[in-house]
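hey so i finally got around to running both of the ones u sent me last week. sorry it took forever, my laptop kept dying halfway thru and i had to restart like 3 times lol. anyway pasting them below in the order u listed, first the sequence line then the structure token line for each. didnt double check formatting much so if smth looks off just lmk and ill redo it

first one:
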Amino acid sequence: MDISKRNAVRIVSFTAAVVGVLAIRNIQLMSSEKRALRSVSYTYSRAMGDLCDAVENVSDTLEKELYAGSGKMHQSLGVVRLNSVNARGSVLV
């Protein structure tokens, strides 16, 4: 089977064009992926920072309550804790 020179050039040209288009599309998709990963990473980092801040605020509030809370409040919190320990059968940490 003989392929004319003209058909051989067409096949090579078409193959080169397809490879070029696929390479360009691959570069576009890789760039898009990097942007998406960066966005997700920043979102997770910000959410983790917000969570740490919230936990720190709760910790500070509880510590302040130890010094500023009334005796009646401490007693009621102790009863609630004792009831939850009895209900579960173990100490809550």
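and the second one:
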Amino acid sequence: MSKTIINANYKNIYNKMLNNILEKNGFEVYDIQKNSEQILNLIKTKNPYVIILPVRENFNEFMGFIRYLNDNYKKLKIIVIFYDYKSGYYDFLEDSNIWIYLKLPFSPIKICEKIVQEIYIENFTKYQKFLIKNGFSESSSGFGYLCCAMELCSENPEYLSHTMSLYSAVSEKTGKTSFSIERNIRYYLKNPSNMQNIIKFTGNSYTTNSKFIKNALNQYIEKEENINPICLNDE
């Protein structure tokens, strides 16, 4: 995967700090002036993972450029920094497939952490990515079995009413026994480190395996299939 980043942000102390942090984390940063032609040449030749763009004026012209990038470079992740943020901009953002947006002042460390996290989980399945982004730990076998079960239930919702058949299907994929799979998912969902996230998903600290899978799949459809841009200034 490319660890190349195009940074077309304005030259200031925030930008200098951001470039230093990104380079220390192994990224190759192309720090250029905001110039559409130069940006497009770099995208074609360097295949960047992320592009960072500033907005201060000419917002409609800028959004036209963003839409061009979306139409022609589907995998490119776009970060936008607003120097004069107006509340009406959000309607444009929802339609633009921007990954992250920020207002001044912004945290260079937060941007780098988000990029590093995204690259770390890039090779995971969509359900693994979804749970990790929502705070769940991936450090136990129960997590992997749970994500496999979510995938199977998304393909065949009848598994939600026939959990023994579900565990047998997971068993076929993983080579582990149905009993071990059910137990590991159950223990994973009882782990105190996941408790707040489970409450957020189900409304209750106690949940069954099938109830959690059903709620998690519904949350996935709601959040991931209607993606909104992330604001890194918000806590």
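quick thing i noticed on the 2nd:
DSSP finds eleven helices and six strands in the chain.
anyway thats it, ttyl
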